[in-house]
Amino acid sequence: MNHHAQTPELQPLDEFNTQLAANVHPIDWTPPTPSGRYNLVVIGAGTAGLVTAAGAAGLGAKVALVESNLMGGDCLNVGCVPSKAILAAARVAANVRESAPMGIHADDPRVDFAAVMRRLRQRRSEISIHDSAKRFRDLGVDVFIGKGRFIGGDQVEVTADDGGIQTLRFKRAVIATGARATALPIPGIDAIKPLTNETLFSLTELPRRLTVIGGGPIGSEMAQAFARLGSEVTLIEKSSHILSREDSDAARIVQARMQRDGVRIQTHARVLRFEQLGSDKVTVFEQDGNEHSIAGDQVLLGIGRAPNIDGLGLEQVGVRADSRGGVQVNDRMQTDNAKIFAAGDVASKFQFTHAADYQARLVIGNTLFFGRKKDSNLVIPWCTYTSPELAHVGLLPDQAEAQGIPVDTFTQHFEGVDRAILDESTEGFARIHVRKGSDKIVGASIVAPHAGDLIAEVTLAMTHGLGLGKIAATIHPYPTTADAIRKLGDQYNKTRLTPRIATWMQRYLRWTR
Fold first, then answer.
1. CA dihedral 257, 397, 243, 446 (to 10 degrees)
2. Residue 355 DSSP class
3. Which of 209, 305, 356, 503 has the fewest CB atoms below 10 angstroms from its CB?
4. pLDDT > 90: percent of the chain
5. For residues 43 and 173, is the Cβ–Cβ distance under 8 A?
């Protein structure tokens, strides 16, 4: 079987994609000969599968890792890595255009889109060595390139690209097959052949007009990036604003910035159908009771994900799964079959690389050493890498209220942070919610150029039970944008200075003069 026919996302087949394929789906791979029973058989070599396999093997377990497509999964091949490469290039283009306030006058930059995408492929290829079949073999993992499925009891059958079949016996197994972009049931969708994250990064020519469906993280990031690189971008979102699951004030700051970058954002809009008219891919949508249409050279679907559960033989081993929620697991990531666990996008509502990583760490302990670690105990932050970035951890106020947790909210706008002023990046804020009457942090949102980095301090505090007062008592270097987090601690401390305490202190200080 021709490997490359299976993986259209590896177009064009230049030197970088050829090297990528050699690392993460080598067509000349010689599988090991399985002998005896494995402590762990892992199906799927995305983040969750790779972390599980490497960690278990490092502890001395006998581990088999099975992957039918590209090792590294979505993150390396069609997700985090290529998207952040294109975002980096788009950010440079925007910085050049906006350098005048710094006293630097540059002509409108010429974007060489083919070179932008070539760099993306080069960097992805370089990073792929960390997820390669050879590296995992060197870590002591038996790597099988092929389609794995349960055949009952304690066995997984692996069918290689060339049709060869091997059977692996396991004491425990982990399903880590991830999720994929899925077509939406919209009339005309097959006719226009829309782009998804799985095909977007194969482009070599910039679409002159790009229509993006969905204002979630993928849609928002790519709409802004392509607008900055020179496309005429229209984004269609059904809610009142983009990033509808985030702090609405923060989301609207990102939305306003995207509009300044040239993205036309249609909110309260519902896609009715697609039409192919000549070379135009037309999106027909309903907004305010009226029907509108927008023509584009490409359409990107930023919505629609489905767990990869087909063909795994789950019914053979009593594992419940469905096309919406994926593999059903308990709080220890264990399926209905006590021998089989699942981790990552195939089984989690948190479809993030870092969430898959830490779920895999839970699974290692719970499968090999009778661990009782719980997924619900993980404090999982996330970030959308627009400009500015929007990061969040924990609960929003309405979510806290629904759980019976009253909150106090503290907000520090970056226009009051010296470093942000000096960097000409004052749009945005850091906001922390604490349990009312205490400094216990229940959630935070940050919208700023490096929000994904800044949220880590708050996540650390939440994970280890450090209150906002402890953050205030921690010296932060000046001038940094992280000073905004310290200032939130100062705001909390001021609330402790009640009128009664203030009166007492004034009397004491008068007495001690």
1. 40
2. H
3. 503
4. 89
5. yes
CA distance 275 to 418: 51
State pTM to two decimals: 0.94
Residue matched to tokens 């036309």: 264
Q: Is 207 exposed, middle or buried (0-12, 13-18, 19+ CB in 10 A)?
A: buried
Judged by DSSP in three states, 488 sits in helix
The pLDDT of residue 274 is above 50:
yes
Which contacts of 8-15 are long-range, i.e. CB under 8 A and separated by 24 or more positions? 8/198, 8/199, 8/202, 9/70, 9/77, 9/78, 9/198, 9/199, 9/201, 9/202, 10/70, 10/77, 10/202, 11/202, 12/202, 12/204, 14/118, 14/121
| DSSP β-ladder status, 63-67 and 37-43 | parallel
Kindly give the interhelix angle for 353-368 and 47-58, rounded to the nearest 10 degrees.
Answer: 40
**CA–CA gap between residue 15 and residue 121 (Å, rounded):** 9
DSSP state of 486: H
* Pairwise CA distance, residues 181 & 18, whole Å: 24
Q: What is the pLDDT of residues 128-160, one digit of tens each?
A: 999 999 999 999 999 999 999 999 889 999 999
Q: Are 299 and 320 in contact (CB under 8 A)?
A: no
Q: With CA atoms as reference, report the closest residue to 35 among 154, 171, 174, 169.
A: 169
Those residues with Cβ within 8 angstroms of residue 98's Cβ, 6 or more apart along the chain or in another chain = 424
| E strand spans, 426-504 | 429-435, 441-448
Strand, helix or coil for residue 359? helix
pLDDT in tens, 59-107: 999 999 999 999 999 999 999 999 999 999 999 999 999 999 999 998 7
Q: Compute the C-alpha angle 356/358/359, nearest 5°.
A: 65
CB-based burial, 138-171: b 16+ in 10 Å, e otherwise: ebebbbbbbbbbbeeebbbbbbbbeeeebebebe
> Residues for the chain: how many in total?
513
Give the separation between CA 449 and CA 78, rounded to whole angstroms: 24
Give the separation between CA 418 and CA 420, rounded to whole angstroms: 5
H/E stretch holding 305: strand 305-307
pLDDT at residue 511 tops 70: yes
Q: Looking at this protein, which amino acid is placed at residue 331?
A: D
Amino acid in position 230: G
Only one residue has tokens 């402590």, namely: 39
Q: How far apart are CA 134 and CA 145, in angstroms?
A: 12
What dihedral angle (degrees, nearest 10) is formed by the CA atoms of 77, 80, 85, 87? Answer: 140
Residue carrying the six token digits 């997984």 = 156
| Cα Rg of the chain, angstroms | 25
